Structures
1.
Amino acid sequence: MGPVTEVFVIAIDGPAGAGKSTIGRALATRLGLEYLDTGAMYRAVTVAAMREGIALDAPDAVAGLARRVVLDVGDGGVVVDGFDATAAIRTTEVNACVSAVAANPDVRSEMVDRQRAWARQRGGGVLEGRDIGSVVFPDAALKVFLTASPLERARRRALESGGDVDEIAASIEARDRMDRERTDGPLTEASGAVIVDTTGRAVEDVLDELTELLEGCR
């Protein structure tokens, strides 16, 4: 499926802990749009592979799974082949493995097709991930790259998981490196994207900035 150009998309990209999910959901609610966490799709494929005992270093097998797995990713949770994976996709084990799945070009191709189909069916929406503005929707109405200081990002993840800040910081650094260095759909600031630093900022403050930016795009 080719790129979708006739839908209204707000693309939010950025590294782990930058605030993509929080801001994306809140912005979608404010604007009356639907929201898709594309990272949850890669996490869901990772969970499916683990449940089926498929080795993550077997790219063809993982890609085959990605093409046939039934995913339901929404605000109500994440369901994988009928299994409620809402909690499972956020485990430490999945955190450590999802980058390997997301780096698989055939998996990414399948997920990109599904993301574009999702937008086509809804006439657009707010989508967040790591390559939304650069690959999935390069013609998005608004492209935003969220960032935050490394310490802030680690602290946010520690609050979510209850883990050690230093360990999480090391994990985030490794994830960033893998995401930026992969050859297919790497984490990068899309051409024309607005870089927004969320360090120390309230959600409403960031939403106000994005809403103002969106008005300037119309």
Note: The domain at 8-217 is CATH 3.40.50.300 (Rossmann fold).
2.
Amino acid sequence: MTIWPLADSLLRIQRALGWVRRPEFLVFLPAITLAGFWIGGETVLILLAVAHPLLFAIAGQPAMAAAAQPEDLSPIGRAVSALDRILPTMVDKGRSTACLVVQFDDLDNVLDRHGRSAQAEVIVRATDRIRGALRLGDFVANIHGDAVVVVLAPVRRLDLETLVQMSSRLQEAVTAPISLGGAQLYVTCSIGFCIAGRAPEATGRSILDAAQAASDEALRNGPGGIRAFSPDMAQKRAERDALRDSLEEALDKGDIRPHFQPQISTDTGEISGLEALARWHHPVRGCLTPSEFLPAVEGSDLTERLGEVMLFHALTALVAWDKEGLRVPAVSVNFSAADLRNPRLPDRIKWELDRFELKPERLTVEILETVVANADNDVIVSNIAQLAAMGCGIDLDDFGTGHASIATIRRFAVRRLKIDRSFVTRVDHDREQQKMISAIVSLAERLGLETLAEGVETAAEHAMLSQLGCGHVQGFGFARPMPQDVATDWVRRHVNRQDRIPRIGLRR
């Protein structure tokens, strides 16, 4: 614990000596010399003449460097300086240090529901709790507004298990409810850390960057994730950053556009809609699905830009099919949680529909069940309610994989449940699957909702789903997602087919 005051004293001496080499000191040197002669005569003049070169030599090149490059007093700069002061002391003392970066999960919810001042207060209180769970000599500071960096004072025993236990202790400190304005707020955090000896380089900056990379990985696997730095994280982070840059360029160039997959009525065999699914036509890697590039845009402003691009292309396609006389009742577009948190979303969608002269019922808004189940966000609730009131269809996607209650389904004015593909696979001969589908269909019928089964790949699955009462189907058994021109030909052939896809038998 005595290392910190000693290091600070040495740093202050170094700064004082650095003034000898600074331009400000050289400017006042003649005045200082004249004053010395007036006060003490030739004796003081001689002492000044000898002392200045001596101090100049003692200050040396480090002082010149400090004069040329002022110290970084930002939280990140102070964290790097703290690490740099510790590193030289560890070799002889047999001690080690580590850097932890704590990122708070879902602070956007606090912002949307309680405002920016409440969000800032939550960050301050959570940071105080982190500081209270550490030793007096540990460095703690806020970085990036919604994250906290921790630099541990040197200790003799510091290994992976110790850091994991410490991270868990910090998470427990943060997750206790925070009382604010009569409300109880709950915050969780994800933590990444790097032990000094495991960073790519033995510098404060390298250790902090490694901890940040581990924290980003923890946040992606959160909430409440904990990750230790590993060498491949830096490479993965660089690849994601490069992919994000390429994605931004692709959005500008129009390389990301929808492929359309038909949705078929089991009653009539007619097309009940087409779902727009994002595809990136990469010049090197070919056609990429969302699972290959969406992780690179999560948490960035590119998420909303992607939603805007998909909506524009979907409505453009719908107008084109109308002009060709092809009956496509609606297009479905997926909206992320980030899209739904934008209070301007209903106005933007209304403006786009008016721009293309389309009625709201021609657009189906697809929302993941997990988003609805966890939506305590007033903005999300309001947006979905406005879209439903406008006349847009609301589809609950991947139904059965989340925890949406009946009350939640009614609250969001859901029109149709999209049964997840995991319940559809082998439904033609798996009795348990059939029971699950029957239960979902029965629930939907009691609530006055439609149903659509995803991932239908065989005629036998289609036949069984129809008999179980599922109203619509979608999957590779009918068509894979297709570019707009290919989808146009598919729709034309389907409409002109004499046999089409028939109604299958009587329902149970």
Note: Residues 23-68 form the longest helix (46 residues).
3.
Amino acid sequence: MFLHMLCYMPTVGLASATVFHLVGDKEKEFPVIRVFGTFGWISAGIIVSYLLHGDTTALPMYVAGAGSLLMGLYSFTLPHIPPKGAGKKVAFGDVIGLDVLKRFTSRPFIIFILGLLLISIPFASYFAYVPIFLKSANISDPAFKMTFGQMSEVFFLLLMPWFFKRFGIKWVLIMGLLAWVIRYGLFALAAPEAIAWMMIAGILVHM
């Protein structure tokens, strides 16, 4: 798993960088492109949980492995995009990311990175523990139920260009953070009595 994640995680940033290089109006076009990633999450949840009922088996790993091979093959069909620094002399500072470290003199950048770090903590625990949380409440096919969050995400992603123009990036980020507060508030209220509708409502608050 460790070796797999070492190979996989860089592809997330690489895919985003490729998209931003190719699109013109990033605020308008990226949410529409990003929504197809959400469709992928929904498809995986439906196949693994609803159709195959493999939540508590090793089956998701086999499905993920097959999906990874297909994505690897698909990558060979992507357009040729040379690295940004292609043909330029690479300095040691570029390798260790000194240009990025300079950004830590910017107060907005520091606030953004700290916010990203803090929100990553509940984000990581969400996908690991919510299936257990739902199963303890006797909710069947928990991974399928979690796709309800991705379904609502499709709606919000398509509205994202309007939100950006109406409120700006700062308030969009704040609304996203507040959505996480509401989600875990609902989970906390639902936990003692295993209130299913409240758990599902918490899943639907997916921004």
Note: The mean pLDDT is 85.
